[in-house]
Design goal:
The structure is a homodimer of 339-residue chains. With 339 residues, the first copy, chain A, is of the alpha+beta class. Chain A contains eight helices and 14 strands. In chain A, 29% of the residues lie in helices and 24% in strands. The interface between A and B is large, with 80 and 80 residues. Bound molecules: adenosine-5'-triphosphate (2 copies) and magnesium ion (MG) (6 copies).
């Protein structure tokens, strides 16, 4: 077998899933876990005594450029990890780690600006970095800077939220406009300005998630990062063995993102958001959860976008207003180094 | 300020400490912690209730070549993180994370071999990977493969061991021969064979540490990775505000490592070990702890190498057999990408 790694293996789609099966799921037998590796959720959950479990999540960040409209790699690293903890129901991070791989020749001020941004994002999230690592690679051996952040939190036993928890009848809520991070970053890379209205949505949303969980029964959550909304909805449907119906016009998309997406030939549903949550909510609680989300400026565009159905299992059907079609996850290379 | 990052910033010495002060210690105020970021220990320790604390540690691995005599980057990543947990007294890892950054064009079989090696090391250590991440960078943007592993464990409150815990009178024990990883890797890079007797010592030593802790009072621990034995002894002395006396001929160094070090012009005390522990032990327990270490094949070369003294505070004095001199930590670039 002489297959080589391509950008598709890092794009969040089917080829990444195959690679992760080969290099991880097949290697690591499931230890005693509430949510183990094989669940491929946003993080793992393991019991530590009768009353508590530990939630762990990790992401390496290789975004380019390092500083982009609306954020930078430091804000992205902290927000991404805080949000993956929150997606498991762990809205109070206990510890974050910060591991830097820096190319020799990088100005020290670049690293300092990035870590100041990490601190600011930590303050927003009520998180702190407790330990880290610093490695240097030679000039030309690494493009500038990569940051791994790992997050750890403790939740009451059974207090976690899996991404596989949807039941028929649940409503699907999206907490904000979709596609902002991916479309903004790509337009910046391509040198388009689009009137300066586009910027990444990168932000920690653990407070928003906490408000939602306090307002009603959240049955499943996922942050639509690589692969965007289309990918996570399909994952949530297939993991829970249910169908999902989505009404296209209910999904919040900003005007600039929509126009820029058309020019760039990119679907806002297919690209990364970095400050948005997709959640399943028990139907009787959907209105309360929506109100709770909208009470927070980060959730002012929140909307009920669809519901879970006992039909087309594992598939997402989009009502476009003109008809119904499957909403498939994007495949292939997509956008390298978006996060 | 237009300082740029150099290999010295990743070498484990004074310039790395300055960088870490600037980018981390100065940014992250100490959260409630038994061992916080500012302690610059092998990991952090934070209370989660009256009875338990969570230990977290992280390292990114960028070693080159990926496969070297005695191990590979996968074995190194798992061992390094298991060992940093063990250095905090946490000998039962609860969860490891595995985050891969892969250069496009890398054969998938390379990644598979590395992750098989991770699994083997996990089995040796009684550890398991519960979650991870996979990112792809473009060809030429990253040299082949970097792996971040983060480790999490729960210890009884107060059951952790800081690196700053030495007291006057404690004995210093080294659990095995020093310099093997660094000297072996460097000789391989330089194309020297030295009769094939050199290989990395990379291995998880949490079992060895557990045996030592069960046999007597271990007051401080550190694994002599970047910067080697000379660096960690100086750190332990200055953190505890004590002096350390070491007898050179008691420090275990293998014949091949000693000869190769001479040819290469490298001190075995100055380079990384990846399967060795340096520990302070209460004097009355030193013989028992030594016996316990030697009972395990990984500790068969263990030796008492010196003691903690109320003199030359923060300094390490080496008795060479011909006289006494300060043992200083190595400074400067040293060996890039050794771990
Ligand atoms: N190298 C790996 N080793 C172990 N598990 C992995 C690895 N790569 C990915 N995974 C697992 O696969 C699942 C999907 O990972 P993915 O990175 O897509 O999730 P995410 O972090 O929520 O998304 P993103 O990285 O886009 O923010 C997770 O459960 C993750 O733990
Ligand atoms: N970028 C960073 N952010 C936060 N803390 C850091 C960072 N880099 C290093 N540290 C902290 O500095 C201390 C020393 O780090 P170092 O990596 O030398 O320890 P180590 O992992 O035990 O050694 P090695 O990496 O050689 O195995 C640790 O407490 C670590 O948490
Ligand atoms: Mg996620
Ligand atoms: Mg993520
Ligand atoms: Mg380290
Ligand atoms: Mg260490
Ligand atoms: Mg280490
Ligand atoms: Mg990820």
């Amino acid at each position: 077998d002489d297959e080589v790694i391509t950008h598709a293996h890092g794009a969040g789609g089917g080829q990444m899933t195959e690679l992760v099966d080969a290099v991880a799921v097949s290697q690591f037998a499931d230890a005693a876990a509430d949510v183990g590796l094989a669940a491929l959720d946003d993080g793992s959950v393991q019991p530590i005594d009768d009353d508590h479990s530990v939630v762990v999540t990790t992401d390496s960040h290789v975004v380019t450029p390092l500083f982009f409209r609306g954020g930078d790699i430091g804000r992205l690293a902290v927000s991404g990890t805080v949000n993956d903890l929150a997606m498991m129901g762990a809205t109070e991070p206990l510890a974050l780690t910060s591991s830097l791989i820096i190319e020799a020749g990088t100005p020290q001020t670049t690293v300092e600006r990035v870590t100041e941004s990490m601190r600011e994002a930590c303050e927003e999230a009520g998180a702190t970095v407790t330990t880290g690592d610093t490695k240097v690679m030679g000039s030309g051996e690494m493009d500038t800077l990569a940051i791994n952040t790992t997050g750890v939190a403790v939740v009451p036993k059974g207090g976690h939220v899996p991404d596989a928890g949807l039941s028929v009848g649940d409503r699907l809520i999206v907490s904000g406009t979709v596609g902002d991070h991916g479309i903004s970053l790509l337009s910046e890379r391509e040198g388009f300005d689009f009137g300066g209205d586009l910027e990444s949505d990168v932000q920690p949303v653990n407070d928003l998630v906490r408000a939602a969980m306090d307002a009603g029964e959240v049955t499943a959550m996922k942050d639509p990062t690589r692969g965007g909304l289309a990918t996570v909805l399909n994952e949530m449907a297939s993991k829970a063995d249910v169908g999902i119906d989505v009404e296209e016009r209910s999904v919040p998309v900003s005007g600039p993102v929509s126009s820029a997406g058309e020019v760039l030939g990119i679907e806002p549903f297919d690209v990364a958001c970095e400050g948005v949550v997709v959640m399943g909510v028990a139907s009787e609680d959907a209105a309360d959860v929506l109100d709770a989300l909208r009470d927070n400026p980060k959730g002012e565009d929140a909307a009920i976008v669809g519901e879970v159905v006992d039909d087309h299992t594992g598939q997402v059907v989009l009502d476009t207003g003109f008809g119904r079609r499957y909403l498939s996850p994007p495949e292939g290379e997509q956008l390298p180094r978006i996060c």
